[in-house]
Design a protein that fits this description.
By secondary structure, the chain is α/β, with parallel strands linked by helices. The chain is 31% helix and 24% strand. Strands 1, 2, 3, 4, 5, 16, 17, 18 and 19 form a nine-stranded mixed β-sheet that branches. Strands 6-9-10-11-12-13-14-15 form an eight-stranded parallel β-sheet. It starts with a strand and ends in a 19-residue tail after the last strand. Bound molecules: N-(aminocarbonyl)-beta-alanine and zinc ion (ZN) (2 copies). Residues 183, 238-239 line the site of one zinc ion (ZN).
Length: 461
Amino acid sequence: MRTLIRNGTVVNAGGALRADVLVDGETIAAVTAPGVFDTAENIIEADGRYVLPGGIDAHTHMEMPFGGTFSADTFATGTTAAAWGGTTTIIDFAVQAKGTSLLATLDKWHEKADSHCAVDYGFHMIVSDVNDQSLKEMESCIAAGVNSFKMFMAYPGVFYATDGEILRAMQKATDTGSMIMMHAENGIAIDELVAQAVAAGRTDPVEHGITRPPELEGEATSRAIQLAKVTGAPLYVVHLSARQALEAVAAARDTGQNVFAETCPQYLYLSIEDLAKPDFEGAKYVASPPLRPKDHQADLWRGLRTNDLSVVSTDHCPFCFVDQKQLGRGDFAKIPNGMPGVEHRMDLLHQGVVAGEITLARWVEVCSTTPARMFGLYPRKGVLAPGADADIVVYDPAARQTLSVETHHMNVDYSAYEGMSITGKVETVLSRGSVVIADGAFHGAEGHGRFLSRELSQYLV
Ligand code: URP
Ligand code: ZN
Ligand code: ZN
């Protein structure tokens, strides 16, 4: 089966040009000047459209056990929503519970995801129990295609790792060439502030933001960078939200240290003012790190331009407002942490193109090409070039849409961007050559998505 996408503007991280894309089976056969090929079983007219490599969301949490409940999207619903939004690969987090092994955890996450995903998927591993066995098992995870390990400086008693534990895991990462991903917030200090707020009767959702100040993200980020320096480990700071953390990352990168960072759309578009919405509405915006004062946003956009922020991921971790966020009514500390977003990343970052914050090519780079390289998927993913998987998005840059819970496909009962007016819309999506979104309908299938065994990060020398 051959598909010809013709007369579109093909956008790769290197730039844009008018070209046709010929797909043969699951891969791209050719990217040519318009008109070189004129026959195929399936022809998609892309005049006036962008033709993009499928988005790669390197940070999602489907069916994640957290805060006494599970994130509301399954691998089936979450990857379907991803496809609607032009994301054709997710990298989700397997979560080691304390006292369990990494390999048993990986098996468990394969059981949840295998034959359920609508698009391709890989895993990172959350290491919450550092001991001789789990350090040894990091090697087996790498052999199984899972070579990035998330650790937490936050959430004491749950995922938290001490500096010594982080150091040991980093030493293993150095030995194996694998990546340490860090949730960088000073959880010990934060827990004190949280306890003080609750004791003083300050229990509204906005306290989530007040008790997790940006300085404590900056401090933890700096500490993680120093630990990475001492051990030689590559470090990827996840969901960076604060200017102070960005400054630490930029300074480390200036010295040539292998330090990378991602931010998320919620930190570019939402703020602590959303957390302060009345009638417990703020609970919809509780995620960690928290939404920051608006003036951090300009720094994050600049970080995206300067490549101190290399990737935009969603940290998609949806909890329904009605029966899950309510767990924290009367005590903000019990609100399950996480926000929905996997469906809207490409659209939201396109607003950055429209507003002149980033270029068209940079949009593709931070949403697709760099995540592919960062996590060992390039050039199979992240580029429109012969031989690459035919994960392709046809995007109408002039279409208008309004984001809403009424129209989104994520399995969650609210939109964090309710009523937001967007320029641009995903029109057609191919996943390995199969049309999964077209004509306003989902044509994919649960189980089409394949597990991606990843190579080591392609940014490390
Ligand atoms: O609040 C968040 N971010 N929930 C998901 C878990 C994590 O820390 O990434
Ligand atoms: Zn985190
Ligand atoms: Zn996360």
